[in-house]
Amino acid sequence: PVLVVDFGAQYAQLIARRVREARIYSEVIPHTATVEEIRDKDPVALILSGGPASVYADGAPALDPAVLELGLPVFGICYGFQSMAGALGGEVAHTGNREYGRTEVGVSGGVLHAGLPATHPVWMSHGDAVTSAPEGFTVTASSAGAPVAAFECVDRRMAGVQYHPEVLHSPHGQQVLTRFLTEIAGLQPTWTASNIAEQLVEAVRDQIGEGRAICGLSGGVDSAVAAALVQRAIGDRLTCVFVDHGLLRAGEREQVENDFVAATGARLITLDDSEIYLGHLAGVSDPETKRKIIGREFIRSFERAVTQALELQESGDGVDASVDFLVQGTLYPDVVESGGGAGTANIKSHHNVGGLPDDIEFSLVEPLRLLFKDEVRAVGRELGLPEAIVGRHPFPGPGLAIRIVGAVDKDRLETLRAADAIAREEMTAAGLDASVWQCPVVLLADVRSVGVQGDGRTYGHPIVLRPVSSEDAMTADWTRVPYETLALISNRITNEVPDVNRVVLDVTSKPPGTIEWE
Ligand code: XMP
Please, which of 28, 166, 239, 491 could form a disulfide with 309 given CB 3.0 to 4.6 Å? Predict the structure, then answer.
């Protein structure tokens, strides 16, 4: 891999993602990794990330100079650029010229910036600056606050930039990063969806051997792709289970039961437990209580599903029933955030299935644990999953229950489901699916307002539209959906959904609002 050495910036994962967008495999490694640990990973290049510290600060994460003597191509970014400059004999100083945000750099020749405009905007965030490049390095960019804003030494396959090429605010950043990888480091872009899928299927086959596995489907993209990979690897020794808790959106169960099964040929058990969940949720309007009830019942449902799966296995192949592996759709960001552990140890820390039966022991299979979301989607397409599944927006495990403000019951669910289906249909028709991260549709079941419809007064409920744009759901902004689309959705919902006489738009970013209302 290309190893991104994480100096504590929030940017390391983003850098890894950008490297993979250049179709080269990349992983994040903490800056505390030793030279031996780095060498053991067999890297093809190193990228030193930015970091919050000043290279002068006490306890600033230090770069072991031996890392630069491994003979590997190295690219430094921001703090990583300064550490690299310092370690190679250049100079770094407190210039007092702090640069933060959009900054113009002027470029002069070199390989990194070839083909770019002589001046162009980049995203800066630094107080210290490199004032003189190491011997043998050519300075190829500068800005008002950074006399050395980029340098390179093609012979040693090393280069670096003061700015952040990984963020979208550096419009040419991806190109610069790609030029480092392909022109200076000489790497080939081979990390493609079909290669990824092939490697993952192979790895699952190795891990599971002759064992058997079970996979809970949520209707979402991660569990679907994970299941499809495992299905491809071990065929009918995988059983998929799907719990219908009655809190799903229109068409979601059918999508799993028909489309997913048709695309993969997987064996599926569906549990229709909606009555159970509705029973426990009756009269409950506190959001956390709703979540707890659903979480608890989900474990029970999953237990029943596992029992059924075992019986099915037994009658299917006549072998003593046992299921050895549990498939989870854990993604790379979760792995990095939880410290990047080895992965089979702690089942409870992964909450994709909402917890697991205590008395059943599984080893985990997490075929997606090295992938980012966009790669998961690409692999899903490669495996022939329908667009409606691989392109699906995130949807919370507790489902529509946390999109009804107030107590949950059948009628309210029906109302919300109808409104949600209309909003989704019109957003898709307007071509907005790719630019919207997700659009919760919320029913304010405890609120009524006066309206007029036909020739009478109405006293109905409002529906809230919550379209958001985001990169990772940690922060989000409300999406500026075209007025025409909003008008269409509003007209259709108020005309077609009984009991709803008002549609409102949520124009709150996150923070301070969360994406979901509960
Ligand atoms: P919030 O509301 O915290 O949501 O801004 C962030 C993202 O997480 C999703 N979400 C959940 N997903 N189980 C899930 O699997 C949950 O309980 C849950 N709550 C929120 C939400 O849809 C958004 O994408």
Answer: 239
